[in-house]
Design goal:
It is built from 6 helices and 11 strands. By secondary structure, it is α+β, with helices and mostly antiparallel strands. Strands 3, 5, 6, 9, 10 and 11 form a 6-stranded mixed β-sheet that branches. A 3-stranded antiparallel β-sheet has the order 4-8-7, with no helix packed on it. Strands 1-2 form a two-stranded antiparallel ribbon.
Length: about 290
């Protein structure tokens, strides 16, 4: 009797330990995917450094800005003899390039890029000068996208549900690979989280940020919206198939591969943007 009780307790402890390790594995992959997606997206700042005289100037050029103020481009430069200029225009427009001098405030060179409507973009180059020599910070111009402010009570739950949808989704995939018993539960939780975070809160976030609830297919080409609906459809199919035939795990594998593929695509890739050329053409046609 004592031996059976000991064996049972040992099995429970082993199951709890294995379950904990599986959660750790899912969490590590989730965090890795989130970091990769954010750091490779077109809104992630451009970082680098350039040696000017005796100083190494490190810079961080922003590619996303929210709010109603002008976007500040700030370059920390200690050498007071170094000056800067910024050249810019609206992205996808017929505008001429404008060049303005950067102003010095203490050990920083600062320039302001004019605010744009949500989803409007500005393309810009930054150059520093010392003793008549120009140092262009980037080989290619940098593009910054403007967004509206998203209230934290909307944004935080959206991030929460999307993050944990990845975590539970990967956990469902691991359950399927190891042929464990909780596959349907994890697939169901993932589907619900994607629905709440991506298809309910997502459009609300989109409305605040870009003044449109939905900019994916069939209206526009926003890849973020399209990725969300594709992911949800595959997860829903996987959950439904598990409900009908729990032993059929193929759709769980497919859904998890789709989810991983979605999160490998950089965040905001092919995102919402204004084509000012089209706006100008429409204005001309109304004259």
């Amino acid at each position: 009797m004592t031996k059976k009780l000991f064996t049972r307790k040992t099995k429970i402890m082993n199951d709890k330990m294995k379950n904990g390790l599986l959660w750790v594995l899912a969490a590590v992959i989730t965090i890795g995917l989130v970091i990769y997606q954010r750091s490779t997206g077109p809104t992630y700042p451009v970082r680098g450094e350039v040696v000017i005289g005796n100083e190494t100037v490190s810079y961080r050029l922003i590619r996303s800005f929210s709010g109603e103020e002008n976007a500040g481009i700030i370059i920390p430069v200690n050498d007071k003899s170094i000056t800067g200029k910024i050249t810019f225009k609206r992205y996808k427009s017929y505008d001429d390039w404008l060049t303005v001098e950067m102003t010095r405030t203490g050990n920083e060179l600062i320039a302001l890029l004019p605010n744009q409507p949500p989803a409007g973009k500005v393309i810009y180059n930054v150059s520093l000068f010392k003793d008549g020599t120009e140092y262009q910070l980037t080989d290619e111009p940098v593009i910054i996208r403007y967004t509206g402010e998203v209230p934290r009570p909307i944004l935080i739950p959206h991030i929460f549900f999307m993050f944990f949808s990845i975590l539970f989704g990967l956990r469902a995939g691991i359950e399927a690979v190891l042929n464990r018993k909780d596959i349907r539960y994890f697939a169901g939780v993932t589907t619900v989280f994607i629905f709440i975070g991506g298809l309910i809160l997502g459009p609300i976030v989109q409305k605040y940020a870009f003044d449109a609830f939905w900019t994916g297919w069939p209206f526009v080409h926003d890849l973020t919206d399209n990725k969300t609906i594709v992911m949800f459809i595959f997860l829903l199919i996987a959950w439904w198939r598990l409900k009908k035939k729990p032993e059929k795990r193929i759709w769980v594998y497919i859904a998890m591969l789709v989810m991983i593929a979605v999160y490998i695509i950089p965040h905001s890739e092919m995102g919402t943007e204004i084509d000012f050329r089209e706006q100008e053409a429409k204005t001309e046609s109304l004259k």
